[in-house]
Write a structure and sequence with these properties.
Distance between the termini: 20 Å
Shape: globular
Number of helices: 4
Largest sheet: 5 strands, antiparallel
Number of strands: 5
Structural class: alpha+beta
Strand order of the largest sheet: 1-2-3-5-4
Radius of gyration: 14 Å
Oligomer: single chain
Bound molecules: adenosine-5'-triphosphate, magnesium ion
Length: 132
């Protein structure tokens, strides 16, 4: 099995594939069901944001070691409009569209590591990890 895998995110079907890929990799590594569900849920939100707001992008899956713990690290990258007000975007209930505004803050709570960087006009990159 490759340690790194990159998947396109263009539409809802790709979001479903991304979820499946994360789950499969976590099952191989014998992550608990709770861990699987948490990371897959976070991945789903970030993948959908990349499709809806980022106008498409990709997701990279990597296996890593963090303090000797097996970790899955996911990177979501798009070259869409970016996020002008990061503080607002990370607030529960804030949406610029028709969402619930829970994707980013919710995803952050489901993982051990969460980094987001965005440049207006250039795009957005979110990196998350969950470890055993
Ligand atoms: N990849 C992205 N590119 C540009 N803007 C983004 C991106 N991801 C999120 N945003 C902005 O941040 C806001 C908050 O995102 P979040 O996922 O928390 O909520 P939502 O997508 O609006 O609703 P929900 O995810 O709950 O359905 C979005 O409404 C959008 O304005
Ligand atoms: Mg969202």
């Amino acid at each position: 099995m490759p340690t790194s895998e990159i998947l396109p995110l263009r539409d809802e079907q790709d979001v479903a594939r991304a979820r499946q890929a994360v789950r499969a990799r976590m099952q191989e590594l014998q992550f608990s069901l709770v861990d699987q569900t948490k990371l897959v849920t976070a991945a789903s939100e970030l993948a959908r944001n990349a499709v809806i707001y980022g106008k498409g992008g990709d997701m990279t899956i990597e296996v890593a070691l963090v303090n000797e713990r097996t970790a899955i690290r996911l990177t979501f990258e798009d070259h869409g409009p970016g996020i002008a007000d990061m503080e607002a975007a990370m607030t529960d209930g804030w949406t610029s569209g028709n969402g619930l505004g829970m994707g980013l803050p919710g995803a952050k709570r489901l993982v051990n590591e969460f980094h987001i960087e965005s440049t207006p006009g250039k795009g957005t990159r979110v990196q998350i990890a969950r470890w055993k």
